# Entry
Amino acid sequence: MNKKVQKLTLCALFAALSYVVFTFLQIKIPIGADTTSIHLGNAVVVIAALVLGGPLGGLAGAIGMTIGDLLDPVYITYAPKTLICKMVIGLIVGFVAHRLGKINDSQDRSHIFKWVLLSAVCGLLANVILDPSIGYFYKLLILGKPAAELSFKINVAASAINAVMSTIVSVLVYMGLYPILRKEHLGLQNA
# Structure
């Protein structure tokens, strides 16, 4: 199969998967007139970045979760933030796993596990910082300081829970898929 078609197909698959996981497998947490959620959409972004590389994997997750935001009246105003934050997760995960850890060049499962875990932690930690911070400044401008401060604390907690769950799930899923990916040559070689 043509590599470009294969990459595009996988990108579309991960975008659809991130949309479905975020939209239908989430627990919404109301914060006054605002809402946050616990979900595993970020795990899909991490897996996409591990399989496709940072830019394409981040783009896939960003597209899927941004569409999820745009189709939900509660989250529609957060679509630009989602697009940026999910792209950042993908870029960081891809950089750490593929550029620093060179996971596609190794056959050592312990080496791959270490770099997959480290890349997931780095990408999702960046999201724990970035997502609530962007949300805070956005709400500060629109809703005022008291509302921004209240939602900031809850958003940090929700983002941290999402990060821990997404790290565990993405590492376990990727390591489970790793033999198949290697056999079918689905990992990018210089991602």
Observations:
- The longest helix spans residues 145-183.
